[in-house]
Amino acid sequence: xxxxxxxxxxxxxxxxxxxxxxxxxxxxxxxxxxxxxxxxxxxxxxxxxxxxxxxxxxxxxxxxxxxxxxxxxxxxxxxxxxxxxxxxxxxxxxxxxxxxxxxxxxxxxxxxxxxxxxxxxxxxxxxxxxxxxxxxxxxxxxxxxxxxxxxxxxxxxxxxxxxxxxxxxxxxxxxxxxxxxxxxxxxxxxxxxxxxxxxxxxxxxxxxxxxxxxxxxxxxxxxxxxxxxxxxxxxxxxxxxxxxxxxxxxxxxxxxxxxxxxxxxxxxxxxxxxxxxxxxxxxxxxxxxxxxxxxxxxxxxxxxxxx
Length: 307
Prior knowledge:
This protein is α/β, with parallel strands linked by helices. Helices cover 35% and strands 25% of the residues. The chain is built from nine helices and 15 strands. Helix 3 (135-146) links the parallel strand 10 (122-126) and strand 11 (151-155). The model has no long low-confidence stretch (mean pLDDT 95).
């Protein structure tokens, strides 16, 4: 099993009523939630750990996980409210306004961490759940506890407008990327994290800090992969883009699914991954993301759609 650890929230997506009035419609979402849903749909055994409310939105989240064949048995349920993210689209790019104070996800603490079953082979972390307190500390503690024996991947999915303490956040991301076996960022995230310069130079800096593989997505151009003695690039598929919500999250699932299908989810497997496996991961990530951007909202493909 791949256990995805991070936020589950409701994306309030912009819509228009039949009377032509502006409106928002609720859809289950969140960066880590989107990744685990995509994994389940790609036929990978996947589980989800987060704080999930017992309110009506929390029930929507749990039902959506079950519908995509994701095990939510490790999630911590509480009566606190669900995080809401109001989305606006600017030139097809998603912009977010988060409502996250005292929510079920935000208030997850290090004391809430579960004992993981042996079936968990790998863990995935990321998203806005690494920003807030106390949940950010909880996910960092979980990675620190498990990184020595389980493969870990992180996608910070950086939202600068959501960060209230930049120094603390940079410190956490630096520590977690240093513990991770696989690091994935967008080109924008990479420059925010390591500063100006080429994608290759930024990725090599992260490899020097401990990562074994670094993936960098570059929007409509495609995606890069870097490892100790090599690099690869996969161009994006040409599709009619509806919106980009969930594109990077789906890419993450494609990468992890490729490793799972190859039986290569162990730490040693990732460290020894050859070019063929890395290119297969790039291809599946790009192919899956292309389907997601071709339809509204975070709606990742099922395995049969990629056959």
